[in-house]
């Protein structure tokens, strides 16, 4: 029996949710259709209830009910909630699986997971034989992995024998979405039926601000403004909870700090309009938050206290918080975008789309009329915000998913059934990168190395570096680094300026112990120092390191090591030798994966990338190279952050000789090869079109360089 048994449920009562009256009809609809689309307002009960209805209807007798989420927090919190509703221990009948965190068991029949996890399962078991129903949730978010799953599931069914191949019973597919784009989805799945859950929404009045205009992308500015508006709402509006939309963990932590500080000075006898309001409870909510803290988000606040949740976009549709009456919208979102200036994916803060802004505002009108305070001007709305959010598949690197598709036997990655096609050049760029990593050969076939690479849930470059290290017998250098780069930022940055200085000093000291100005080495050193410490959590506190993040890094490292050990059993696992010192060995392994991210000193403190884009980049102040870069001429880096300038983060100095032989690979791949890699058959016509397009591109680039 579970610990949860007997506890009363807090939050939405399942029988009062809009989905409840439709229970039987929904189960019938699933029974009679191989594909079904279910739509309904956020909070109607789709995610938490439908899997339970299917469970009760016996769908878990033959297999599991699997539900995908684009966000890991959503998968975890929803599974917790459903376990509680079904009165079972999390990880037994109801479980979740997200990258590097598997909370399922033999008994698990209702499984929440990220879309990335299901994609990996398809690799191991293409017919998904363990599942009786697969529910793709939050499809309107149009995450890359969900889009790929849509295509794969369509393929399975359209391929006449596919639906039953390798299975003893037919698979059911349910696609769930907020009320957008249902016609398009239905058409995609051979005009399958759409089940609409009617919901009631209350009006939300929106007001624009006067502060943030088209040029204010600086976080310091919009964070302050959001805090100011939230405090205004707190003091001048009637009781009701506030939901603030911000961009990411650090902005949210910063805003919460400021709110705490300012809220302390409120005199509730005089300063607030609604005298029933006697305090404020400030709660952050972002992707990598500890789960015990997340629980509080859903609890009603104590009497007289106003809850103020400061969240990322996760609160827009993935999680429903009851009791929200006011929205404060920053107008920005942190998004992974393919940046053509640097030729790679970068995390950028960009204006949200108008449809996203409406979605955010809607969160205030679930149970009664609400208000939405936009901190940006009407001009910002008109000039800077696009109508709709571009699907991820059309704006991020496709390298990892193309490798997955190829490993699944989908060779023609251009004519794959995409709900929205990515631009061909993005596909070609992915193929080019895979070719550069030796993951595919000149004919587009997956190589042995590619087969190894696909096993790791990491960025292909990082995987390549790790495999290089493993082949040289020094995986102990790279495994911790790969783990540290897969968890949230481990360096704690306090909100208070004095403390910030203190933390920065400690962090610099940590970097100095490696004696190498190498940020990757710092990560390795922090990992090892903490691991060998008697009191790791105290060690972290002393050094301003997030203990929780480091704990997950330990677990991730173990899991990566398990994958590697399994692969090393293969007889054809590559073996290489190297004689040189350890620091060089370490950096050479990094070069194997990061040679696409090489930059050379240009003038002063500015570096120039070598990938053919020739972008000017700056060393990020958090890097150990920031102050000493004068001695360094060549660097590789893990990622790029775009704010006022382009900053490279997690960098290390290298020697030109180490990448000299690799760099030509960045330019040599030619169009004939790539297009034949992309399709199996290329017509003459297509070839000619290609050629002229490429020639035009080269010419353009040439003239840009001349200028
Ligand atoms: P939908 O998927 O249609 O947006 P959900 O099934 O996510 O709706 O949510 C239904 C209801 O369950 C909402 O009222 C929400 O507040 C509540 N709920 C969901 N998760 C939790 C949780 N972890 N704790 C408390 N209430 C929750
Ligand atoms: Mg949902």
From TrEMBL:
Annotated Helicase C-terminal domain residues: 225-409
Ranges that cross the membrane: none
GO biological process, one term: mRNA processing
Stored Pfam families: DEAD, HA2_C, Helicase_C, OB_NTP_bind, WHD_HA2
Designated name of the protein: RNA helicase
UniProt record similarity statement: Belongs to the DEAD box helicase family. DEAH subfamily.
Organism of derivation: Fundulus heteroclitus
InterPro entries: DEAD-box_helicase_OB_fold (IPR011709), DEAD/DEAH_box_helicase_dom (IPR011545), DNA/RNA_helicase_DEAH_CS (IPR002464), HA2_WH (IPR048333), Helicase-assoc_dom (IPR007502), Helicase_ATP-bd (IPR014001), Helicase_C-like (IPR001650), P-loop_NTPase (IPR027417)
Residues in Helicase ATP-binding domain copies: 27-198
Compositional bias (Basic and acidic residues): 693-707
């Amino acid at each position: 029996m579970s610990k949860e048994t007997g506890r009363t449920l807090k939050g939405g009562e399942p029988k009062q949710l809009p989905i409840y009256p439709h229970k039987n009809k929904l189960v019938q609809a699933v029974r009679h259709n191989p594909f079904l689309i279910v739509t309904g307002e956020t909070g109607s009960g789709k995610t938490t209830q439908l899997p339970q209805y299917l469970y009760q209807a016996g769908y878990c007798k033959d297999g599991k009910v699997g539900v995908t989420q684009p966000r890991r927090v959503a998968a975890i919190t929803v599974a917790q909630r459903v376990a509680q509703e079904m009165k079972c221990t999390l990880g037994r009948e109801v479980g979740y699986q997200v990258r590097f965190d598997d909370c399922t068991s033999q008994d698990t029949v209702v499984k929440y997971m990220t879309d990335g996890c299901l994609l990996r399962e398809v690799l191991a078991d293409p017919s998904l034989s363990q599942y009786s129903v697969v529910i793709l949730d939050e499809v309107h978010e149009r995450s890359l992995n969900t889009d790929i799953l849509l295509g794969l599931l369509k393929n399975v069914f359209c391929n006449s024998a596919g639906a039953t191949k390798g299975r003893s019973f037919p698979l059911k597919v349910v696609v769930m979405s907020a009320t957008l784009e249902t016609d398009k989805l239905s058409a995609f799945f051979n005009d399958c039926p759409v089940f609409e859950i009617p919901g009631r929404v209350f009006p939300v009045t929106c007001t624009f601000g006067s502060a943030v205009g088209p040029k204010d992308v600086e976080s310091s500015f919009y964070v302050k403004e959001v805090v100011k508006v939230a405090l205004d709402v707190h003091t001048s509006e009637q009781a009701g909870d506030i939901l603030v939309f911000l961009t990411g963990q650090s902005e949210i932590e910063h805003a919460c700090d400021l709110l705490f500080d300012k809220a302390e000075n409120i005199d509730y006898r005089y300063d607030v309009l609604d005298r029933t309001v006697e305090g404020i409870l400030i709660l952050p909510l972002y992707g990598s938050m500890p789960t015990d803290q997340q629980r509080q988000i859903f609890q009603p606040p104590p009497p007289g206290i106003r809850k103020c949740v400061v969240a990322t976009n996760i609160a827009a549709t993935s999680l429903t918080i009851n009791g929200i009456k006011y929205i404060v919208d920053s107008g920005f979102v942190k998004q992974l975008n393919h940046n053509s200036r640097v030729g790679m994916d970068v995390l950028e803060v960009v204006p949200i789309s108008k449809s996203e802004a409406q979605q955010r505002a809607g969160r205030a009108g679930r149970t009664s009329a609400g208000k939405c305070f936009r901190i940006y001007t009407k001009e910002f709305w008109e000039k800077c915000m696009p109508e709709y959010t571009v699907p991820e598949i059309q704006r991020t690197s496709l390298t990892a998913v193309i490798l997955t598709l190829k490993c699944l036997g989908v060779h023609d990655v251009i004519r794959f059934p995409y709900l929205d096609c990515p631009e061909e050049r993005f596909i070609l760029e992915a193929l080019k990168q895979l070719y550069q990593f030796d993951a595919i050969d000149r004919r587009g076939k997956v190589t042995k190395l590619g087969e190894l690479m696909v096993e790791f849930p990491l960025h292909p470059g990082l995987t390549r570096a790790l495999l290089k290290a493993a082949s040289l017998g020094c995986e102990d250098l790279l495994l911790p680094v790969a783990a540290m780069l897969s968890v949230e930022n481990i360096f704690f940055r306090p909100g208070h300026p004095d403390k910030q200085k203190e933390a920065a000093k400690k962090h610099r000291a940590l970097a100095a112990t490696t004696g190498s100005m190498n940020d990757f080495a710092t990560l390795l050193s922090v990992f090892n120092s903490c691991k060998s410490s008697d009191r790791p959590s105290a060690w972290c506190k002393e050094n301003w390191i997030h203990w929780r993040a480091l704990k997950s890094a330990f677990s991730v490292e173990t899991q990566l090591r398990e994958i590697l050990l399994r692969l090393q059993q293969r007889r054809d696992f590559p073996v290489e030798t190297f004689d040189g010192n350890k620091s060089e060995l370490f950096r050479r392994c990094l070069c194997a994966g990061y040679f696409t991210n090489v930059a050379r000193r240009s003038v002063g403190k500015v570096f120039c990338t070598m990938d053919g884009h020739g972008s000017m980049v700056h060393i990020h102040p958090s890097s150990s190279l920031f102050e000493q870069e004068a001695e360094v001429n060549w660097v590789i880096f893990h990622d790029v952050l775009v704010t006022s300038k382009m900053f490279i983060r997690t960098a290390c100095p290298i020697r030109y000789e180490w990448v000299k032989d690799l760099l030509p690979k960045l330019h040599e791949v030619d169009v004939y090869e790539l297009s034949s890699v992309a399709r199996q058959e290329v017509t003459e016509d297509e070839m000619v079109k290609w050629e002229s397009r490429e020639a035009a591109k080269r010419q353009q680039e040439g003239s840009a360089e001349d200028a």
